[in-house]
Amino acid sequence: MCGILAVLGCSDSSQAKRVRVLELSRRLKHRGPDWSGLHQFGDCYLAHQRLAIVDPASGDQPLFNEDKSVVVTVNGEIYNHEELRKQLPNHTFRTGSDCDVIAHLYEEHGENFVDMLDGIFSFVLLDTRDNSFIVARDAIGVTSLYIGWGLDGSVWISSELKGLNDDCEHFESFPPGHLYSSKERGFRRWYNPPWFSEAIPSAPYDPLALRHAFEKAVIKRLMTDVPFGVLLSGGLDSSLVAAVTARYLAGTKAAKQWGTKLHSFCVGLEGAPDLKAAKEVADYIGTVHHEFHYTVQDGIDAIEDVIYHIETYDVTTIRASIPMFLMSRKIKSLGVKWVISGEGSDEIFGGYLYFHKAPNKEEFHQETCRKIKALHKYDCLRANKSTFAWGLEARVPFLDKDFIRVAMNIDPEYKMIKREEGRIEKWVLRRAFDDEEHPYLPKHILYRQKEQFSDGVGYGWIDGLKAHAEKHVTDRMMLNAAHIFPFNTPTTKEAYYYRMIFERFFPQNSARLTVPGGPSVACSTAKAIEWDAAWSNNLDPSGRAALGVHVSAYGDELKAVKPEKIIPKMEVSPLGVVI
Questions:
Q1: Does 262 count as an annotated binding residue?
Q2: Can you give the residue ranges of the Glutamine amidotransferase type-2 domain (predicted)?
Q3: Active site amino acids
């Protein structure tokens, strides 16, 4: 993984332009501290900042085909690169890098090879034979990527906004699952799964098929030549990632290089719900566990750095990015270069607490589709940029293409939350790993209620952020908010505070347009707010805003409600069926 920057067709091949591209590329150096590379062909420049994970010795970029007529700069991990190499017997590879297959696949298949790649990636490929180029981004948008256009007719590509915002007339987020072709001067979608149309699937739920698909997704991500670990919050998703990794690590190449002891990492305020649960899971699955504490003031002090790195003013993303940013620095200091994380599960399975109010399976499924399509603006952006701020890579097995295909093909009736039947959020995932004979996790962890990361690190965290913003944004400032910020007008002082900082770093109109907006409750889309009339008066992205669902919900009216009245106690049969 790395940071990439490309300037294509700028009508300027001067040394001064080369120096400018190098200067902009250095803005991405935090993403790839291990190597810097720049290839120039006429008025086209491909720059690269490398974080060396696979083949650290010889995998420096840009990468080439045999005669160097095809040049590629890539940010990504291609998990099936060994299989792809076998399909290219007549090609000679210069490196052992997993990304080395891209130039050769292009030679064989032209622009139609992208769907053959199993992994996460964003890349720019320049064909010097006709001076054409293509740009592509992975299916869900796990890797970050932006595209911009200059007044001189140039096209700019960068892993982060800061690589192009000062030099482009217009720029925007590069859409996930798309390819941009210079020959067509436009985008086309290369990723076209059945769920994208939001048609309602009808396949029966098969717990073992779901379990095996996830295990495969985790195992393929254990591709490494450097030390790694797992992020463990103690919630369902990260705990399953850690448990599966710990169970299968011994049989991988990674174990032969780095041993079978898995390192796990957790962050939180003193006394946070996540810390206690994560320690229990770590002891259960046998990881070497590292627990990092931070204070509300530590987080507040990091706000400006975080907004600069994650390049958003979205409230819930900033809330969750700050502890992840602080933790990533600690992890990198221990010599770890990448981690496995649990992003994506809530979107696929309807894990956010507001899904309790989904009126029917059709709306439930359509909301999961909307959430997956928007992941690149929220959790993927957070996981990618919060970690890469310190040169740490995050891998996300829940967003594996094959796993998503299996999970999104399940009849959503099985995913529906039915409290009267003991079916809580993500029931199909919990049941798939409820193995009485060879348990993956303690039962109460497997059925722990959803905590959003910004809540789980400590309920005082969000309250502290709100109090800090209150000191810096006055009521009079809020009265003028619609005039100062007519697009995505902040409706709270916390949102106003973050917006001021963002605009200072990224003042261009194109920059503010890259950030999503609209009302939300407990991370819902605007459409889902219609599910409960009371939510329109309680718009906050925290999970505790899901009144009547979260056991620590906002509002005194819930303090007397016992947890078992909100989520019934469950018994689980030996077959894993909740009864």
A1: no
A2: 2-185
A3: 2
